[in-house]
Amino acid sequence: SAIVGWDVLLQRFQQKDPFLGRREFWQSGIAMIHDHPWVGFGLGTWTTAYQGYAVFDDQAFVNAAHSDWLQWAGEGGTPFALLMLIVVARALQLGIRMPWGLGVTFVFLHSLVDFPLQKLSIFLWLIVILAAMEMTPSRKLSQTQ
């Protein structure tokens, strides 16, 4: 909001259909997963593969599925999405023990309807926080008792 302005965010909340545009990306993503459920199209190929599954064309470049989960399953197949689900389960488990790290789980939840983890800086911070949670000594002490 600070970068693009509050008016853009306000307009987004005033739309009658908050999923306008995203729904179509998601329909295309589901079709992609349906066609290649086990291996996907290959990591990093969303923008190329999407063109063959687009349900509408607004003359704009589509850079992501607007759902990291759909994109992971479309690019890496359902096994890759399941692998990411294991990471989320571990993040939630650690977050319950260390509430300062619960934000990691919320980023993964946010990625159901957006693509924050496509941004390298957010992805790297998420990994750093997950690693810090794994290495926190208080967690190891509680396991030995």
Word description of this protein:
- There is one protein chain.
- The chain has 145 residues and is an all-alpha fold.
- The chain has helices at 6-14, 22-35, 46-50, 68-97, 102-110, 120-135, 137-144.
- It is globular and about 50 Å long.
- The chain starts with 5 loop residues before the first helix and ends with a helix.
Taken in chain order, the helices and strands follow as HHHHHHH
Radius of gyration over all CA atoms, rounded: 18 Å
Structural class, please? mainly alpha
Percent helix range: 55-70%
What does the overall shape look like?
globular
Strand percentage lies at under 5%
Low-confidence stretches: none
How far the N terminus sits from the C terminus, by CA atoms, comes to 46 Å
Number of strands: 0
Q: How many DSSP helices?
A: 7
Mean of residue pLDDT values: 87
Largest sheet: none
